[in-house]
Amino acid sequence: MTVDCPSRIPPRPFLKWAGGKSRLLAQYQPWFPQDYSRYYEPFVGGGAVFFHLRPASATLSDINPELVNVYDCVRSQVEALIQQLEIHAQHHGHEYYYQMRAADQGSSIERAARFIYLNKTCFNGLYRENSQGKFNVPMGRYKKPTICNPELLRSASMTLQAAQVYLRPFSEILQHATTSQDFVYFDPPYHPLSTTSDFTAYSRGAFTAQDQVQLRDVFVILAERGVRVMLSNSDCDFIRDLYQGFPIRTIQAARAINSNPAKRGKISEVLVMSS
């Protein structure tokens, strides 16, 4: 069951997000379960799958408090958020960007608007923190970035009315998804294909190989309960070995983030299913 969205703009991600799934949805579509009562996404990121499915009941979560705050504000205070974003759009420039990047205080609305502003204007829409947990991505080279899209935010807000948003680690899904009427989609930081392609370090707590093993263990427990589970990750021996025994589909994705444009192109990923 999906939520109807009367907005003129169909719901879609309002954030740029590394590894976002918007361009892969057509490949994922055949593998989504047709019927379920509640949807869970423990690594919400840009939320492309959530906005595509528009489930009637959903739980979204992440360990990034600023990201969770953004979703909370889009859902419950979208008009106030739009007003703050319009202020950022009016003042955007080199000096203003770095002033906002250095700021780390303010109300929930101010923090959410700053997060979206930086997301829309930073290099490649990349989210990365230094060892102190401070956002440290340089300004992008956009001539006219779309900082505030009111109709898109309102559309996202409508869809988010069916969701609860929490700050919590992925392992807590075991306390909530318990039956075959639950559908869980995992989109964790991908396991690096090489020492120079470590895209897991977007925040202070990089997602390690041991974290991947723990996630596999959670996947197995959920599958044994009959929960419908899907998981995306990089196509490598380590991930394929972790999930041996489960159906694995190969997905063709575009590598969008690389400092060398010549190295951006097609790369295979895996989609693992519980059954």
Automatic annotation (TrEMBL):
InterPro entries: Ade_MeTrfase_dom_2, DNA_methylase_N6_adenine_CS, M_m6A_EcoRV, MeTrfase_D12, SAM-dependent_MTases_sf. SUPFAM superfamilies: S-adenosyl-L-methionine-dependent methyltransferases (SSF53335). It catalyses: a 2'-deoxyadenosine in DNA + S-adenosyl-L-methionine = an N(6)-methyl-2'-deoxyadenosine in DNA + S-adenosyl-L-homocysteine + H(+). The keyword S-adenosyl-L-methionine applies. GO terms for biological process: DNA restriction-modification system; methylation; mismatch repair. Its EC number is 2.1.1.72. S-adenosyl-L-methionine binds at residues 17, 21, 62, 187. Keywords: Methyltransferase, S-adenosyl-L-methionine, Transferase. PROSITE patterns: N6_MTASE (PS00092). One of its GO terms (molecular function) is sequence-specific DNA binding. The keyword Transferase applies. Belongs to the N(4)/N(6)-methyltransferase family. This is Site-specific DNA-methyltransferase (adenine-specific). It comes from Acaryochloris thomasi RCC1774.
